[in-house]
Design brief:
Strand content: under 5%
Helix content: over 70%
Order of helices and strands: HHEHHHHHHHEHHHHH
Largest sheet: 2 strands, parallel
Radius of gyration: 25 Å
Shape: elongated
Structural class: mainly alpha
Strand order of the largest sheet: 1-2
Number of strands: 2
Number of helices: 14
Number of domains: 2
Length: 425
Amino acid sequence: MKRNLTGRVIPAALALALAAAPVNAFAATKAVQATGVADENGFISQPGNEYDDATMKKLADNMLEYDEIGKLVEVYSPTFKTVKETYSDKKDAAKDVVKLKSKLLDSSGELADTASTLKGSLDAAKEMIGKVPAMTPTNYAQLYYSSELMDYQADAIALQGDSLEQVSPEQMHIKLVDSTRAALTAGAQSAMIGYKQLKLNEESLESGLTLLEAVYQSTQNQAANGLATQSQVLSARQQLESTQATKLTLTSSEQKLRQTLCTMLGWKYDAKPEIKDVPAADLTRIDGMNPEKDKQAAQDNNFTIRYNVLDLDNKDAGSVEYQNLQRTIKQEKEEVASSLVNLYNDVLQKRNELQTAKAAYELEKTKMETAERKWQLGTIGRLEYMQQQNSLKTKEIAVKTGDLSLFQAMETYDWAVKGNLSLSQ
């Protein structure tokens, strides 16, 4: 079967596709000229693919699915492509350490810029807590959580670059290939979850804006009949305009994050792939989590510990360096065990928050049913009815936000078990 792999542009100058800045049309055109012929979506594939035709065809469709992110990084990430190409030349890999170190540090900075895209909406969102029903502390917390996770991935890549030195091919593989693949994949997953959170917040604010517009109109009507002051009219207008500004900020962040996902995973920055939903949190996964049982795997898989264990072979047994490294490894294993407990507790906390949000939503649905009956009987006004509608929407968004938050917490725990846990040592 002939490979049908057209569909993704890999901008040649893009160090890491988590960069927030868009790639200009000229650069994208040059990338197409350098690597092949693009299809109607404007993207093409990388050479040397590692998957079968059916998998590659699915990766090359115009949809972004969460469970494909790891494979998309393998095939389309320009940073990972560079790492693999450099590492494959094991004999001369050492001479490229300086180049790779610079590349990874640049990538870290660009990933940090992407985190700032989310953080750019935090101040405006925080101002709305308690003022706009649609902006809840939970919505704000999830935005903050997603931005911090991206900062974490930026730090992880920075540490890889900062500590890179003349090492054995096996150490180089752990330092570059294994840990970079994990950091890029986890970073893209966090970016997709953050994008979906922004979309939820945008939906929530749209509901709040509908209510605030009605409140403003009602206040104007009351003022015209002498039942409200001009100060009350001004206050209603200011709250409406402030929420509109917040929505613009969130929409801008959402668009930038969409561009990030597109460029990171192979599309042109202005492409319009369908970004599918993040999987719902599967509560049964928690039953399989046990920090005490999982800590051995997390210690054995941890990229930093694996690297340092190999580095022991480069030290003279009994030397001060050898003893210091042994002590460091012991401390790192203790840190992994402690971190795993904290991550597990975070999963449990997020599960409890989701259950609370679901209970609140069910209660709000009962209130909405009552409001529906009263509305049909004409015993409540339009504004009161709209307030109940908005309250229900707020509780619905809180459930979806809680589900995203729990899913992210479970993913973070699983990544720690698989070795992607940055250590302070």
